[in-house]
């Protein structure tokens, strides 16, 4: 069974799962797993396909969450307008940051991306009048779907939020799948494998990395909007390094540069994160150990346990694939 079919099967199983799950806490864990899968998929576009280690990814998550919170509470806009606005704001920020930082290589990019997220968190923490500082935004309204004055769905219930999260996750995975099959996705893989060789065959590393960076920012912003409306609260901690670290662990443990990897990583890491909230001080240490073990014994992630890729008769490298007609 191919990776794409496994992903479709998992989504189909998730669609019927609420019929067998009545516990509200289990539903909460599943909804948070959808959120973490969206976040890790967005980071995977940068880490998995381009090969750049972005430690400031939480900045785009936080921008999306705060955009949605401000527009819904201050301007009274519905969730369905806040959601795309969150993606646009986060994507615009990713474009501005990427245009500067992606020209740098190695640890320079890593440090500046981390510094951007920390500076943004500091600004939010100290913007008491504008963004309520450390108090954050409470009472963010839950989405609702109405037609002609009649409420068709009230997403205050976990069952409705579950399917909203599943739909957004499916859309995120589809966007990532389309990116991976596009010329930009193939070019990004070529850049990851060998930047100099990619440049030699006419691939612009900066341009392909920037497209992946912006796409990842947009998807992270959308995930942030979902997060804010589900928890009905957003504070400066959403910009913290812990979210980036969690997403990075999901990508590495699941399998970077794959569609299935972030899903597996989110299921393992995301649920464990929620279960270990009572031991908050120790959980990052636990995941640090898990990350080291994963890198040592499963360098290709959990997806490598599913199948060892059998050689395909006409397998092409990313650079060779770019010279052939794209398959849509």
UniProtKB/TrEMBL annotation:
Compartments where located: Cell membrane
Superkingdom classification of source: Bacteria
Keyword entries, A-Z: Cell membrane, Membrane, Transmembrane, Transmembrane helix
Main subcellular location: membrane
Ranges that cross the membrane: 46-67, 79-100, 106-124, 159-177, 209-227, 233-252, 282-303
InterPro entries, alphabetized: ABC_transp_permease, LivM-like
Presence of the UniProt keyword Membrane in the record: yes
GO molecular function terms listed in the Swiss-Prot or TrEMBL record: branched-chain amino acid transmembrane transporter activity
GO cellular component terms, A-Z: plasma membrane
Stored PANTHER family: HIGH-AFFINITY BRANCHED-CHAIN AMINO ACID TRANSPORT PROTEIN BRAE (PTHR30482:SF10), HIGH-AFFINITY BRANCHED-CHAIN AMINO ACID TRANSPORT SYSTEM PERMEASE (PTHR30482)
This protein's name: Branched-chain amino acid ABC transporter permease
Organism: Roseomonas indoligenes
